[in-house]
């Protein structure tokens, strides 16, 4: 009876911890620990620092309860470690860490990867419960981030106060390196929410909205549903993320095409979307009349991204099999940007080049092999495929799905739910 009572309590506690973990995914409240291995050229690099987040403490409690209190540790070890595939991956991880120039960064990065892999497994085992929680939690994500985004635009900087406890960083329009845009000649900060960059927030919001659509269902006549929809759309616009703007337009067309099938002349919708995409393309690429209405992005953005791509390709050439080590792209970057006129200490803005440069083609092969076994014989919902498409396309021009905590947790969540 005592054992039964303890197990019942632990199961209730697991549900509470899971709910809190999901609720806190968009936050980044944490404590940085700055060790020597977190520096590049004497500069503190957030991507390399050891960070203990609030969400990590909740994850750790959930992990301990799941593995020890539920008596599943033997089965977990047997099913997840005592097989050829896992031993092969462990061997690769050890080599990848040992060959890294900064093996502490590589080891820490692999701990983060393992944490997310376990989360994927746990979500996959509790899909129904996670879905029930997400139906309530995602609107909270979207509404809070949208209110914060609107407030940041009006204040032209961070709101501080209680928002700091959710992970908002302090900034103003004049902060060095802050992301900006211009509307009719008026300079504006781009909305950050509780994220490290507006692009990261935009990608998170778009995927979250589609994920909520998946679990909330086709309730197009409900005021609350449309309220959450418009909050998300407004926040995405305020982030100034041009890539996500395009993907949002395409997603909106796909959404209305699938939900308003009674529209007789869908050709009008295709024409309208085409016009919107052309206009947005002109805003992004060309310096013309539209640029006078909406502009102000980093003029050297594409040049810097191109240089990072070239640096990643050179790293891949140097170590094509095992890569330069997990998390070690930035550690090696100064060596590959010696002759650049513009030095930009950022991860390469392409998740495929980032992964291959750090993990090598062997690492790419392992992830493809693992995903093949993961997806085999599964009939995947179209909405999940759409979310993965957004992640892949946005990941072609940015890195946040593999480097920033909120996006990495969301990616793991989506993979676990498939």
Shape: globular
pLDDT < 50 stretches = 284-296
Number of helices: 17
What class, by secondary structure content? mainly alpha
* Rg (CA only): 22 Å
Task: Provide the residue-averaged pLDDT.
Answer: 83
Beta fraction: 5-15%
Q: Could you give the distance between the termini?
A: 37 Å
User: What's the helical proportion of residues?
Assistant: 55-70%
Number of strands: 7
H and E order: HEEEEHHHHHEEHHHHHEHHHHHH
Main-sheet strand order equals: 6-5-7
Largest sheet report: 3 strands, antiparallel
Structure notes:
- The chain is mostly helical and 418 residues long.
- Helix content is 66%, strand content 5%.
- The longest helix is centred in the middle third of the chain and has 29 residues, at 127-155.
- It has 17 helices and seven strands.
- The two termini are 37 Å apart.
Primary descriptors:
418 residues, mainly alpha, three-stranded antiparallel β-sheet, two-stranded antiparallel ribbon, 17 helices, 7 strands, globular
């Amino acid at each position: 009876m005592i054992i039964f009572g303890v197990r019942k309590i632990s199961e209730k506690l697991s549900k509470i911890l899971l709910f809190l973990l999901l609720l806190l995914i968009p936050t980044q409240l944490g404590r940085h620990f700055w060790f020597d291995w977190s520096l590049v050229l004497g500069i503190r690099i957030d991507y390399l620092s050891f960070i203990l987040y609030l969400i990590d403490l909740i994850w750790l409690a959930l992990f301990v309860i799941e593995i020890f209190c539920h008596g599943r540790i033997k089965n977990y070890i047997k099913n997840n470690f005592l097989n050829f595939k896992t031993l092969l991956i462990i061997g690769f991880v050890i080599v990848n860490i040992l060959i890294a120039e900064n093996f502490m960064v590589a080891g820490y990065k692999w701990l983060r990867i393992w944490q997310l892999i376990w989360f994927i497994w746990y979500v996959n085992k509790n899909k129904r419960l996670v879905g029930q929680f997400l139906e309530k939690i995602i609107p909270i994500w979207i509404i809070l981030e949208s209110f914060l985004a609107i407030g940041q635009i009006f204040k032209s900087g961070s709101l501080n106060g209680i928002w700091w406890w959710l992970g908002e960083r302090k900034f103003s329009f004049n902060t060095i390196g802050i992301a900006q845009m211009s509307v009719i000649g008026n300079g504006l900060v781009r909305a950050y929410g509780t994220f490290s960059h507006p692009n990261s927030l935009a990608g998170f919001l778009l995927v979250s909205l589609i994920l909520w659509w998946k679990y909330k269902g086709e309730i197009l006549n409900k005021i609350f549903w449309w309220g959450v929809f418009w909050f998300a759309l407004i926040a995405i616009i305020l982030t100034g993320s041009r890539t996500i703007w395009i993907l949002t337009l395409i997603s909106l067309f796909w959404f209305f095409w699938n939900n308003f099938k009674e529209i007789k002349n869908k050709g009008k919708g295709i024409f309208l979307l085409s016009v919107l995409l052309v206009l947005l393309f002109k805003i992004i690429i060309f310096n013309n009349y539209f640029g006078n209405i909406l502009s102000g992005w980093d003029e050297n953005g594409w040049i810097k991204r191109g240089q990072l791509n070239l640096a990643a390709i050179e790293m891949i050439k140097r170590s094509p099999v095992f890569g330069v080590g997990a998390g070690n792209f930035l550690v090696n970057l100064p060596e590959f940007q010696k002759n650049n006129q513009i030095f930009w200490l950022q991860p390469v803005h392409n998740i495929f080049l980032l992964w291959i440069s750090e993990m090598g083609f062997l690492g790419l092969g392992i992830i493809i092999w693992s995903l093949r076994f993961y997806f085999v014989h599964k009939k995947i919902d179209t909405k999940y495929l759409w979310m993965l498409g957004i992640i892949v396309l946005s990941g072609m021009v940015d890195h946040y799905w593999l480097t920033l905590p909120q996006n990495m947790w969301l990616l793991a969540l989506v993979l676990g739910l498939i």
